[in-house]
Design a protein that fits this description.
Blueprint (H helix, E strand, L loop, with lengths): L21 E2 L4 E4 H6 L10 E6 L5 E10 L2 E7 L14 E9 L5 E6 L5 E2 L1 E4 L14 E2 L1 H4 L4 H20 L4 H11 L1 H26 L1
Parallel strand pairs: 1-10
Antiparallel strand pairs: 2-9, 3-4, 4-5, 5-6, 6-7, 7-8
Helix pairs in contact: 3-4, 4-5
């Protein structure tokens, strides 16, 4: 029997990882930005399509746009109902809401079951419903492996290098500029300065020619 004067054991504090939670990269995600880029919100209500995920675990999902009480919803069918028709019952109904942007267009969000407005919803392994990070105990890889020597010394720098190489070979000027900034920020600043000077000289030349 422990005496009353004994000092209780101090709990682990700080950055100690006491419980391994599910990581975000091991879950499937529904992103309204990807749906908007795919033209989903421009389709009429009742449109159905199939989503197939192979990683991190295989999932076959059937989605359908549903209009209920004047509101647009995203209906999700189970994997067993992926080949069902339009009258099949929905396993989950996600409310969609849009907000007007300042320069035109609209920004879409999911309304989670907890009432929060989220752009991304996650499907945890061995779960049947999408939810936000506030409803599911999710975390990021860097928060779980910040004290791992293999992660900090080898894996994470190698992943950054691979991402940088992919950005340099991308067609997007923004991704190229980001990769160049990571390699040599001073070179990026010098390139931007030269580009601005060249544009200023070109504008001066056009103005002189017009006069």
């Amino acid at each position: 029997m422990i005496p009353e004067t004994a000092t209780p054991t101090r709990p682990l504090t700080g950055r100690a990882v006491t419980v391994r939670m599910v990581r975000v990269d091991r879950c499937h995600r529904l992103d309204t930005r990807g749906l908007r880029r795919g033209g989903v919100f421009k389709k009429p209500a009742g449109t159905m399509w199939t989503v197939i995920w192979q990683r991190p675990f295989p999932v076959l999902m059937r989605c359908r746009l549903v209009e209920s009480d004047g509101q647009l919803c995203l209906g999700i069918l189970n994997a067993s109902q992926a080949s069902a028709g339009e009258d099949a019952p929905l396993a989950q109904r996600l409310l969609l809401q849009s907000v007007p942007c300042r320069y035109g267009g609209r920004r879409w969000y999911f309304r989670c079951e907890c009432g929060a407005r989220r752009r991304v919803l996650h499907l945890v392994p061995e779960a049947s419903r999408f939810a936000c990070r506030g409803c599911t105990p999710l975390t990021y890889e860097s928060r779980q492996c910040h004290r791992d020597r293999w992660y900090q010394g080898i894996w994470h720098p190698l992943a950054l290098m691979q991402r940088m190489v992919a950005d340099l070979g991308s067609r997007s000027p923004r991704r190229k500029l980001r990769a160049m900034w990571r390699c040599d920020p001073q070179a990026v600043i010098e390139a931007i300065r030269k580009d601005l000077e060249a544009r200023a000289l070109a504008q001066r030349g056009e103005g002189t020619a017009r006069v």
